[in-house]
Amino acid sequence: MANCVLTPTPLDPVSNFSASAPGEVTLEVKSTVGNVAIDAASTYSGGAITFLSATQIKFNVVAGHSNLTLALVFSDPDGAGTLNEVCSANTLLDFLHAPIPAESYAICA
């Protein structure tokens, strides 16, 4: 399993996540109420997103400040889930809720 790259930074007013270094990261959404999937409208300001499945994406974190926008699709109007990094610690990055079908995250590396 890969080493973790992202760390949540809840007290940082500029970024949501800090990256240990530029490089490849894989993220996964996990359903807790209904089903949640990542929509193809998702974008990353540093480059392309590779869709590994409806629930996993991969991209290369670039040096400096970048933005990840996740467009989400929920099967249940009260749906929920989590955003995790696919890595040795399975880092929990955020809680996801159907009333908020898009999330934008600032990443600093």
Which stretches of 5+ consecutive residues score pLDDT under 50? none
> What is the count of β-strands?
11
Spell the H/E element sequence: EEEEEEEEEEE
Strand content: over 45%
Largest sheet: 6 strands, mixed
The average pLDDT is 95
Large-scale geometry: globular
Number of helices: 0
Count the domains: 1
Rounded to the nearest angstrom, the radius of gyration is: 13 Å
Helix content: under 10%
From the helix content, strand content and strand pairing, which structural class follows? mainly beta
Topology:
Layout: E1 6-8, E2 17-19, E3 23-33, E4 36-38, E5 43-44, E6 50-51, E7 56-61, E8 65-74, E9 80-85, E10 92-97, E11 102-108
Parallel strand pairs: 2-11
Antiparallel strand pairs: 1-2, 3-7, 3-9, 4-8, 5-8, 6-7, 8-11, 9-10
Quick description:
The protein is built from no helices and 11 strands. The protein has 109 residues and is mainly beta.
